[in-house]
Amino acid sequence: MFRKLTAIFICAVFAIAAAVPVFAGGDGIFSGITAELYLQLDGYYEGGGHQMRGFAASPDGKHLYAGLLQLNRHVTKFDAATGERLGEYEPQIENDDGVTSDMNYPKSIAVDSRGYMFVGITLDEPKTPYIALACVNPMPDEDGYMHEVSYIIENLGAEHTGINGLATHNSGDRILVYITTGYDKDTIRCYDVTDVNDMHLYSGFGVDGVIDYNDLTGSRKDPGYLTVDADGYLYLCYLADGAPGIKGSHVMKISPDGKTVLEQTEVVEAYGICNAGEYLFVSTYGSKIVILKKTDLSIVTEFEIEDCKGAISGCYFADDFLWIGTHGDGTPDLPGEIYRAGPFMLTRDPRETETIPVELVTAHAEDESREIPEDGQPYMLFDFSDPIIVSKITGDNDCTVIYDEELQCMKVTVTEDGQSDGCDPYFSLPMSKAYYFDAGDYPIITLRYMTDCYCLGEIYYTTKINRNIGMNHITYDVEDVSEWSDLKIDMREDDAGNWEGEVRTIRIDLDSDGEEGDVFYIKSLSVMAGEKEPAPDTTGAKETKPADTKPSVSEQEPDDTKKTGPAETGPAVQPKAGASFPWWMIIAVSAIVLFASGAFVIIRNRKKQHDKS
To answer: Is pLDDT at 67 greater than 60 in this prediction?
Structure first.
């Protein structure tokens, strides 16, 4: 009898072990799936930037990256374990004319197996044919800024272009980056970024690295986000013509060469996408996550993220967790949210989690250099007697800018009447990196000009520390003068006190309420040192706190109501070791089976003895 009980027990254990995958493995691991609010981005830290569109996690799950689309457009890096804000990257891409625009924005981000961050950048001024792919060293400098190592810029020959999706892929010895472009030029592009100093289109994909999205999908709408698995298959979210939705309607599986559609399935508002093992996670332009099988794109399950603010930006799977980003509430007060679901014990291809240890290269020295005088000596920043300099400037609003051959200077003409139309004529200076200067060394701006208008002007600017141009400006009087005169403006008189750090952009509003036909002639713009403020007399004085100045990026602390860190619902949850299935249940079920089996054997033996008697 003991042997029978032992045999029955062993069989029961094997039966239960075989049944465990039904409950704990396969698609059952997604049973009861929920996502917890992990981190709220803080508008105080983000400097006015908001609406997170670009979102990524590093392959090891240690860092999170948030790309902000509005106002202060940049990428912020976070520690995934603590929520600590580690650094920022501000796109500094120049177009073919050498102009760096404040309107460049990062809408797609991915981190490759070496640790480089790749950012797809739309050069929006406000409409441009240019796109750019930047390679960024994600290690912040002492001021908390991440810098470009290199970038590739393309003119797609359309009036308006932009980048949506971006994904990285290890293909043998090559490292590839895929992007999707939209607006007036819909393509899927593949770049070989193995050598980050020689990024170029990869000829092994499509036609010389490019696929015509409209021909491939039959859709006239912008392509969405994409992901690439270890074997090089592409998975793309797209909006089919005539289908309901704003951003997407289907998920498509594409061959590694980019030329053939293999499978597709309907997912309403399919937007962001990532892959892990045999599964795809699709985030909708709403609050839903849909999980698909990679093989045939069949739907496994789906779940809602409750109370999320704004649509989901995208999702990334890393270190057994699914990370999910949202747009936020549409204001700088809540730029975005990050949720986390899992852990999920998925079997993954080792190539998906492969890391390649390399020494990340730093940014190259500037190709263009300018010698800046020491000790704040007068320095001509722009010489507008040079027609090449003037050719790089366009009237941003309500004015035209041309080179005046007779006077050999820049001529600015107001094109609309401010009395009736409320015009605001202004233009931006072509501030490439070589033109940046230290505000502390050069607080005085001098415009050499002449005009027959008497009006009120303004200068707007951004610095490395203060990048919200709407908060950085100073007003000055423009006198009507019939000969060349110097208008000196002390930028330290800016009421906000933001003239500090490295000056990145300058915008000139010659007349804040212009009248059509007003003309201004400008010969040059110079910067110079001003009289230094006397040091305070501390003799016998009590120790006092420093003046109320804005802290640097690396020194800022949140207030009590805006914290950058894990959500207040609890501390950061650490990944659980082992599978999430309750093993105590296996023991309990085994005991029940053993008891039932033993009872059955005893009853059967008694019955046999009764029959014999």
So the answer is: yes
